[in-house]
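Now read these lines:
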Amino acid sequence: MLFGIALGLLAGYFAARASQQRQGYAELDRYANHLILVGEQLAVETDKAVTDVLHDGKPFCSDEDLAFMRKWVYNAQNVRDLGRNRDGNLVCSTGVGRLVGGPRQVQRPDLDTGGMKVYAHSPLMISNQTTGFIVQIADISVVFNPEAYKYLDEPPMLYSAYLHPQNSNQLIHAFGHEMPLSPEEVLRGRRLLRDGVVYRPLCDTHSSVCAVAAVPYATMMVRTRRMIVGYLLLGAVLGGAFALIAVLFYRTRQSLEQQLRRAIRRGSLTVVYQPVFDLSTSAPVGCEALVRWTNEYGEPVRPDRFIALAEEKGFLSDITHLVLKLTVAELGDLLSSSSLRVTVNMATQDLHDPTFLGYLERLLAEANLPASSVGLELTERSTADQDNAIAAIAELQSRGHAVYVDDFGTGYSSLAYLHRLEVHAIKIDRSFTKTIGTEAVTASVIPQILQMARELNLLVVVEGIETPEQVAYFRSATSVRVLGQGFYLSKPMSAADFRKLVQTGNPVIQ
């Protein structure tokens, strides 16, 4: 009997390792295919950029031509600069405009197929310390976003992306880590194990993109060892099953989701308030309500973590209701006796919640507050469903609420349909704010946003202000009213501290 148990455990050991290896290989294949998909998207966007600029109908490198290219770059996902070349010289680009002193000769390309030139990690005009991956087609230079693949990092897996022109055996490394594989091994597309690392090369003939996904074999198999230990323990001690059930039941009750649901029921979440200032007068004009949570072990949980969990599990609206209730309770009298406005973040689930508007209306009526004292912030993601967002915003506006588009410029709302949303204000994302005073390409986007806000008569709220230079920059935007929030102006604070701030003003900005 003991011999049979030993044979069964041995067979289970090898079966477990084979199963884990298959799972590891499948995960590596999924990662490689995802890399190829991103490469295909990048190739499609590059072709579209070249086609659109070639047929924009504007005079070569004129102000109108540059404006068209800059708008194109602003709406692009993976393209960060566009340039025009003539006779082997760069004449203008969206980052630097027309070159001072006339056209500048470009360096020798790393690859020239006749129809396409490739410059790998080439120095850019905007900064001598900045390099980029550039593809030139038909005298149009396309500078790729250096972050195009970076967000795909999935440690412990590593990646590398290559450009592989058709009818060529040459590979140009574009993004990611250097891999110890020859071009022939990459193009062959077969999985291989070398020096303890599993490599999965993959090429797509349609987009001329190749990718390599890699993971240490021992890391891939580490879960197998844990599974085997667990199997041996469970097989040796049948009574451990009862203990395991008890442990799983306890852990389920103490899981993050269960803790969060209990915290919402008990009303034990808290709210802090991020003051918002009129940059032209330095006066506080309101605040943004931000939810905070400390779990049952006394550990603070990051908002992006528990908000994402509530959204995934479908009870994010419960958090929104609680934040509104706490905000009205803590600041209701201050809002009713002043022109201050507090804004609360609204999620996609709130737009679809038929009880939301009624709850908000009753809450304000009980506190004798006008709807104008509470603004609602919609993330760009929640406005992706345009028809639903437009209807919801119209209803909120009709009831007197100001509606803001939060984190504007990060990918969902576009200049093409923002006017259809008829919102009250846009909030410039902190990723744009931090480019003020730098040579980053995105810095040129901010004047376009301010110009658009002026044309659409929108209020602008700038997030993430952390330096006096940023304050000065937005103060100079006299054509549009600009409000600001950020750690340089004031950190999030309790309701009591916000009341004091309203009474004393803000001594930081002068």
Notes: The CA atoms of residues 447 and 505 lie 29 Å apart. Residues 2-54 form the longest helix (53 residues).
